[in-house]
Design the sequence.
């Protein structure tokens, strides 16, 4: 019977841990002290061919606090927090919380990731979660509110859905609305009143694009009509993205609108026509056959190429 590599590795780890706990030695390695389990020694037993410096060690609490002081390179911050994933350090929480407002997006993300593993000190009343929520709703700077929305998304708790959904459609800053839309995507939720669909019709193209992306990233999106409406958007980028989204959704309700976008007399942008033809092929509605056939004579070679592919699906 076949034994998987993962099973063998798990067995080896279990065996080594048991031997170390019992004080025995493995392959000539010295036995662990009777009063403690040396994790690094255990790894050395299993990976004797690796230099000791390559073995990952837990980040001590003082290092976690040190990297938050404002002069540390982003990569050092990421390494310290990632390697300190299991370090329990309540005193580090306020320091790491400051990084939620760092100018580096990756630093903000990994800081929220580290914090959400600390239930005590993060999600209680008056703690980090409440502070972030107050920043989003309390009228701070556009940048601070934007970063607060991101953090609520990265905390991955259901209570964050309602405030970010509200911000996605009511905040005065397009930066905040876009971040709130991305937070809804991260939370895998369209909002209690389908606020994501409202954001698809936002006055700013960058918010509309973010909302369109989110609509096919969450498990349940109930307002396909909001996407169909964007086929007549003023922005070519939004029209193109809407066509791509509708193709992914296999939305038969969008066929008529997509046929219009595939027609060069109605749509001047060849990128949009290409996406429209592609979407028609993905939807596979036979009523689109003539429009896709006509696209073979389009002046743009990419549209022609996409039409040939789409015809195979109709």
Sequence:
């Amino acid at each position: 019977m076949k034994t998987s590599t993962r099973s063998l590795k798990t067995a080896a780890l279990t065996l080594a841990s048991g031997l170390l706990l019992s004080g025995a030695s493995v392959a000539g390695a010295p036995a662990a002290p009777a009063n403690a389990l040396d994790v690094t020694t255990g790894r050395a037993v299993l990976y004797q061919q690796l230099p000791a410096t390559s073995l990952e060690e837990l980040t001590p609490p003082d290092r976690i606090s040190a990297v938050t002081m404002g002069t540390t390179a982003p990569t050092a911050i990421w390494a310290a927090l990632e390697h300190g994933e299991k370090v329990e350090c309540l005193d580090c929480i306020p320091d790491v919380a400051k990084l939620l407002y760092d100018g580096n997006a990756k630093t903000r993300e990994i800081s929220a990731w580290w914090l959400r593993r600390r239930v005590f000190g993060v999600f209680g009343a008056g703690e980090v979660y409440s502070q972030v929520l107050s920043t989003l709703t309390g009228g701070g700077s556009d940048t601070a509110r934007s970063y607060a929305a991101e953090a609520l998304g990265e905390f991955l708790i259901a209570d964050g859905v309602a405030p970010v959904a509200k911000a996605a459609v009511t905040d005065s800053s397009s930066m905040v609305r876009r971040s709130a839309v991305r937070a809804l995507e991260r939370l895998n939720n369209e909002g209690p009143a389908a606020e994501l669909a409202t954001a698809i019709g936002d006055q700013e193209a960058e918010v509309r694009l973010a909302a369109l992306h989110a609509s096919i990233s969450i498990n349940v999106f109930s307002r396909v009509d909001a996407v169909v409406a964007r086929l007549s958007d003023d922005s070519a980028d939004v029209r193109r993205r809407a066509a791509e989204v509708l193709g992914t959704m296999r939305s038969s309700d969008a066929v008529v609108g997509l046929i219009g976008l595939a027609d060069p007399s109605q749509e001047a942008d060849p990128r949009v026509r290409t996406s429209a033809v592609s979407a028609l092929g993905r939807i596979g509605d036979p009523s689109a056959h003539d429009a896709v056939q006509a696209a073979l004579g389009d002046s743009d070679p990419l549209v022609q190429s996409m039409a040939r592919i789409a015809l195979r699906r109709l």
